[in-house]
Every structure is written in structure tokens, then in C-alpha cells.
Write a structure and sequence with these properties.
This protein is of the alpha/beta class. The chain has eleven helices and eight strands. Strand 1, helix 5 and strand 2 form a beta-alpha-beta unit. The protein starts with a helix and ends with a strand.
Length: about 325
């Protein structure tokens, strides 16, 4: 079952904390129960080193910077598609279909982590398991994930640098007053929130890091926006030949599901790079899983294969 697989996907902490990183095609999770001392630390923030970090030859440049991570060309792409965010037959269909699988993974990870910190009744059994938590959805688009987090009880700040998707998100949220009151949409960047001194229990950036100019600087900002005891969640696409076929060639050039140029293979991020980048910021991967699409059923499922799409959560080291 999905819950059994999620349990098995605990925890990458020991492997990524002290041992050399494995090659992308050989990644497999540590199956033992995680050392909770790695996931409940509420000490002060540890910021990234100013030195550059290259994980391996051919990897993306993960040099740390405080500059705005926004890529203006990427923003233009999503502005043009803003009206189609909630169209189940439009270019965001893969994201719409993927969202329940992302949410299932995040619900389990967040409930595990914050139940341990709360020291009270398990959050797993609650109707609104994220009640009382502040969540940030960076690169929210029109709020696919934001609405899911709000329905789970979190007070959500949904932020995107593109104004059109944000306006679409506000309109969609207004259709459900119970969701609308838990959601605040803003046109802003992660760096702006950091300058304002904002912090959140949960910081999410799903399908975002492959669209930014500086992944390391972006990770640094995400971790600094995370309150003591909080978690960072990211999902993206692995930089493998198979990912180029599955996420670019087929959907963009053969099936025409999404506009050509939506993704750039050179901007994809490997699990090793993500883990190393987070580790430099004082965070350790707590849980990671691949997400696999079945074209026959049209459904996504969690898997141990992170060769294409994958999702991860991290907590302070």
C-alpha cells in the first residue's frame, strides 16, 4: 500500500549525512526507522557557506548567492499559460493529476514530523492534520498545492512571482469560502519574504527549483524561511536521459500535452544535488520518493525509482 511504501522510504538521513552520494540510477532509501534526533532539532538557523558547490562534473552550478533566484524567461512562460491552470485537459493536466500523490506523501511526512515535535495525539488520525501550522507555497501558480494544504488545516501563504497565475488562484479559492479563509495569495518572491522576516513551519517549493537561476541560493532562502522545528518540501525532475524522454520529448514534442520549451533538461536537479544543497544549509533529507505516471490509468503513484520525478522533505540537521 502507499502507506507501507512511505514507511519504507524513511530515511535518507544517515546516508546523505556522512557517506558519499550514490549515482542517480542507484539511489535507494534507507529502510530502517529514522533517528529522530535528526528531524526534531530546533536549534538556530545554519546558513549556507558562501563558497560555490559543484556536486560532480556536469552538474548544475549550485553557487550560493543572495541575489533574486527568479528567471524572468520562466515567469513569462507561466504568465502565458495562466488561464489554463485548472483546466484538466490543458497544459497543467500532468500537475493536476500528480497533485493527489504529492499531497499523500507530504501528509504522511508532515504528520510524522510534527506529531513527534508536538508530543501529543497523532496528527495522522485528524481530519485537519496540519491545523495550527503555517505553510508557505513558493511558486504556487494558481494554488493546486496551496488549496490542498489549506484543506488539511494549515494557514497557507501562496506566493508566485507571476501575477496572472496568482489572480487565477484567488478566483479559484473564492469558490470555496472555507478554503479561501485559510489562504493568502501574494505576488512576491521567496527573497522578498525573507527580507520581511517571515518564517513558516512548512515551506514547499514543488516543481520550482528546475525553473530558478540559482538552485543553491534558492535552497538557502527556503531554509532560512523555515521556522525552528519546521520542514522544507521540494519536488522536481531528475537530470537523467530517461527524464529527458519522459518529461520533454513525449509530453512536449510527441503528445503536445504542454508547450514546447516548458522544461529545459540542463536545469533539472539530481537527488544528490538537492541533498548536498540542503545539507550545506544545515538540513538533512528526512524522506524521499519517486513519482511514477501510468499512461494507461492516468494515475500517479509513489515508487522507489527516482529516475524521473521525485519529491523530498528535509528537516534541520
Amino acid at each position: 500500500s502507499s502507506s507501507h511504501l512511505l514507511r519504507r522510504l524513511h530515511t535518507w538521513a544517515t546516508r546523505y549525512g556522512t557517506q558519499p552520494l550514490p549515482s542517480a540510477h542507484n539511489l535507494s532509501p534507507v529502510l530502517s526507522k529514522p533517528d529522530r534526533s535528526h528531524t526534531t532539532d530546533v536549534g538556530p538557523h545554519t546558513t549556507a557557506s558562501p563558497t560555490s558547490c559543484r556536486v560532480r562534473t556536469g552538474a548544475r552550478n549550485f553557487s550560493a548567492t543572495k541575489e533574486d533566484s527568479i528567471d524572468s524567461e520562466e515567469i513569462k512562460k507561466f504568465q502565458r499559460m495562466a488561464d489554463e491552470w485548472w483546466d484538466v485537459e490543458g497544459p497543467f493536466r500532468p500537475l493536476i493529476e500528480m497533485n493527489p500523490t504529492r499531497v499523500r506523501f507530504l501528509r504522511t511526512a508532515f504528520c510524522d514530523h510534527f506529531t513527534d515535535i508536538d508530543g501529543v495525539e497523532s496528527r495522522h488520525s485528524k481530519l485537519k492534520p496540519l491545523e495550527g501550522l503555517r505553510a508557505l507555497d513558493i511558486g504556487c501558480g494558481a494554488g493546486l498545492l496551496s488549496q490542498s494544504l489549506a484543506r488539511m488545516g494549515a494557514q497557507v501563504t501562496a506566493v508566485d512571482a507571476a501575477s496572472q497565475p496568482v489572480n487565477c488562484g484567488r478566483e479559484q479559492a473564492a469558490l470555496d469560502p472555507a478554503v479561501e479563509q485559510m489562504l493568502t495569495f501574494r505576488v512576491a518572491t521567496a527573497e522578498q519574504l525573507l527580507e520581511e522576516g517571515s518564517e513558516f513551519d512548512i515551506v514547499c517549493a514543488l516543481e520550482v527549483i528546475e525553473h530558478v537561476r540559482d538552485p543553491q541560493g534558492f535552497c538557502d532562502t527556503l531554509t532560512q524561511l523555515t521556522a525552528p522545528g519546521g520542514m522544507v518540501a521540494m519536488s522536481t525532475i531528475n537530470r537523467t536521459p530517461r527524464a529527458a524522454v519522459m518529461s520533454i520529448l513525449i509530453p512536449e514534442y510527441i503528445l503536445n500535452w504542454v508547450p514546447k520549451g516548458t522544461h529545459e533538461w540542463s536545469k533539472y536537479v539530481t537527488p544528490e544535488e538537492m541533498a548536498a544543497s540542503l545539507r550545506r544549509c544545515g538540513f538533512r533529507i528526512h524522506m524521499m520518493a519517486g513519482m511514477e505516471y501510468n499512461p494507461l490509468s492516468g494515475h500517479w503513484s509513489l515508487t522507489e525509482d527516482v529516475g524521473v520525478n521525485y519529491i523530498a522533505v528535509a528537516a534541520r540537521n
